[in-house]
Design goal:
Blueprint: E1 19-24, H1 28-42, E2 46-50, H2 58-69, E3 74-75, H3 82-88, E4 91-95, H4 111-117, E5 124-127, E6 147-151, E7 165-169, H5 175-180, E8 195-196
Parallel strand pairs: 1-2, 1-4, 2-3, 4-5, 5-6, 6-7
Antiparallel strand pairs: 7-8
Helix pairs in contact: 1-2
Pfam family, one: YjeF_N
Protein name: ApoA-I-binding protein 2
InterPro entries: YjeF_N_dom (IPR004443), YjeF_N_dom_sf (IPR036652), YJEFN_prot_NAXE-like (IPR032976)
Length: about 200
């Protein structure tokens, strides 16, 4: 299994509210979203995936197939009526754009998705970098998540994160990478793969 399958802080999602909408973009962050949806399903949450622009990458296709085999439903469209999302789900996982995205992508094909997500009232959990944010400077034009899950290590933009919880999922980072980039990872107690910052 992918180490990223552990990259979601399940205690931040109460089990009495199990419905989660996972919104996936076409690149790496979208693939992480697919893995996140699988992980949520394993722990008895009820994820639904919106993945409008599927990647041709064989690995991402495999992640999609795995989600389908786990009977995770895929939406054919994202409702623009925000109240429908608020009523149907208890949280949204933002896996639209990530650290690899160009800031301009938030104005391209993902613009409609981001416009909708900016207006939901349910909690948003962003994976690695909130969609629409510049990875270095942050951005006021992107979404404002309640929870940020930084992968490997917090990015520069995390300094501008004002949500209620920030986690890091980086226990899987090899020691040579930690040394090369001078990462100073937190202590991960027991078998935890995610820790709050």
């Amino acid at each position: 299994p992918s180490p990223l399958s552990q990259a979601f802080p399940l205690p931040s999602l109460p089990r009495k509210q199990p419905t989660v909408l996972v919104v996936c973009g076409p690149a790496q962050n979208g693939a992480i979203g697919l893995v996140c949806a699988r992980h949520l399903r394993i722990f008895d949450y009820e994820p639904t995936i919106f993945y409008p622009k599927r990647s041709p990458d064989p690995l991402y296709r495999d992640f999609t197939t795995q989600c389908e085999k786990m009977d995770i439903p895929f939406l054919s469209y994202l409702p623009t009526e925000v109240q429908l999302i608020n009523d149907a789900y208890n949280a949204v996982v933002d896996a639209v754009l990530g650290a690899e995205a160009e800031l301009g992508e938030g104005r391209g094909p993902c613009a409609g998705i981001l416009a909708t997500l900016k207006h939901v009232r349910i909690p948003i959990v962003s994976l690695d970098v909130p969609s629409g944010w510049d990875v270095e400077a942050g951005s006021s034009s992107g979404i404002s998540p309640d929870v940020l899950v930084s992968l490997m290590a917090p990015k520069q933009c995390a300094r501008r994160f004002l949500g209620r919880q920030h986690f890091v999922a980086g226990r899987f980072v090899p020691y040579d990478v930690q040394k090369k980039f001078e990462l100073n990872p937190p202590e991960y107690p027991g078998t935890e793969c995610v820790v709050p910052l």
